[in-house]
Amino acid sequence: MENSLSHAGQNRNAEGKNGISLPTMLAIYAKRWKLLIAGSIAAGIVGYAGSYLIPPTFTSRTLFLPPQQSQTGAASALANLGALSGLSAAGLGAKNTGDQYVSLLQSANIQDQLIDQFKLMSEYDTEFRMVARKELSQNVRITLGKKDGLISIEADASSPKLAADLANAHIAELRRLTSQLALTEAQQRRVFFETELKRTRDRLAEAQLALQESGFNPGALKAEPKAAAESYARLRAEVTAAEIRLHSARRMLADNAPEVQQQAAILGALRAQLSKLEASAHGEPTDGGYVKRYRDFKYQETLFELFSRQYESARLDESREGGLIQVVDTATPPERKSKPRRAVFAVGAMAIGFAGLTFWILSGVLRDRRTS
Q: Of 25, 138, 243, 299, whose CA is between 20 and 30 Å from 6?
């Protein structure tokens, strides 16, 4: 008996020092279960009603397949290039990944066009474009499917039509931007050969003018050893091709890389052959220099014909690849809002109300015990 009384006294002393024991707390809450339930339900109703004060948000989604890189087209186009075939691997090959198109969709170029088109600065109630960009980034989610390679664009807006138009406008702006950039392998080849073709056309015109000034005429052309001159022109074209390959390789690889060393060795051998051919021609009569000028003319003519063929081939490949942003699902105005979710608001408010009531009841009991 004395032991039980002393044990009960120890429990009371422990409660006095440490607060309230768990069984006591459960008993207190059990007596006030109606208050806990009613208060939680009331908080849930308030939260549900409060969700109507939040402006609704509508979400629309579009799905598209970005252009796929075709390496077979590049290989066939460069098959007839001869000395310049190494450009495919060294300077022109660039992998076209979905991440690249996601970055383009998130670029300031496209965002500024969308901000102006839909007057988003007024929509987001801001005077600063940088704030509008930030709001747009938060309201538009662009994701790339790792397995299927499809790109999804989800746009949030205050109205269903604006949400659908904003999602679809991203694809329209992406088409506009990609038409201005050399993203695909065919576009890169077209830009490269277009630049080289213009440069070679100017040099060919200069060489032709210099050839005419030297007194070179059709009669002299028949007497000129054409085979030697054309051989010299082809060799110079190969030297130019090797220089371009070496320059392209050095932009991506270190100087001690095997590919760079191999291209340097090829270029050295071609230059040695060209030096021997030029040295053997020093003793030949030049007749006012027109032989040398004829060789320069044939060299530029060879390059011009070569770049012309590849430029046309690249244009055909680019036309086949053009507009290959294939829309799988077009964004349509949503029938229901996506935010706020009133059920989530109600459940959250109930949880907060229940937690608040339990704390309030426990605080009241502890305050009464201190005063007593």
A: 25
Same domain, 292 and 272: yes
Q: Tell whether 26 is covered by a domain.
A: no
The string of pLDDT tens digits covering residues 165-175 is 999 999 999 98
Residue 259 has which token pair? 């590919």
pLDDT at 221: 47
Task: Quick: pLDDT tens for 118-157.
Answer: 999 999 999 999 999 999 999 999 999 888 889 999 999 9
- Number of domains making up the chain: 3
* Same domain flag for 137 and 63: yes
Residues 111 and 149 in one domain: yes
| Global pTM value | 0.50
Q: Is 148 helix (H, G, I), strand (E, B) or coil?
A: coil
The verdict on residue 301 lying in a domain is yes
DSSP state of 92: I
Q: Can you give the residue range of the structural domain that contains 143?
A: 58-184+324-329
